[in-house]
Prior knowledge:
The chain has two domains: 17-92, Roll (Nuclear Transport Factor 2, Chain: A); 95-177, Nuclear Transport Factor 2, Chain: A (Roll). Helices cover 30% and strands 37% of the residues. The chain has helices spanning 2-20, 26-36, 94-102, 113-126; strands spanning 44-54, 59-68, 74-80, 86-92, 138-144, 147-156, 159-166, 172-177. The radius of gyration is 22 Å and the shape is elongated. The model is unreliable at 95-104 (pLDDT under 50).
Amino acid sequence: MKKLLFCIITLIMMFTNIAFANPLTLNEAKNNALKFFSLENKSITWVKEKQEFEKKYNYTKFEFEFIDDITKHEYEIEIDVNTGEIIKYSCNKEKALYEKTLNNYTNNSDISLNKVKEIIMNDLTNRNIKNINSDNIIIKIDEEDNRYVYEAKYYVDSKEYKYKIDKNSGNILKFEID
């Protein structure tokens, strides 16, 4: 009887805490994410802002992806809505790293990085994408099917545009929107 009473009281306390918890607002969670990475909102482009229920673990989370416009680093973070706990995070410093390695793989027969950006800007313009800034195009080089390709990403209006462009011809080999 004591065990049953203890279980009932414990369950009541658990549900009472959940019911009266003050969940984070979207803006509070965004501020916590920036604070966690020691960033300021004035130089941030938000790519993804999503609230989602995680069925597997039975909690609700905020999921953010954003770019620091100054360093071009990409950040991802998940925050528990009810507790404010950081569940998962990553920082990808890809643009800074990619541009250093690109010089090792280019030669005179390749199209230039400026030409790659021009190809992407023209394609995005043809797709009626507004507010395009070539400085925000992230480019890396990759070997695929025994040839080198430029892989590029561009973020605008919470969408990620991905390109694969042939390094020699400048042809767009693949395009995706996430």
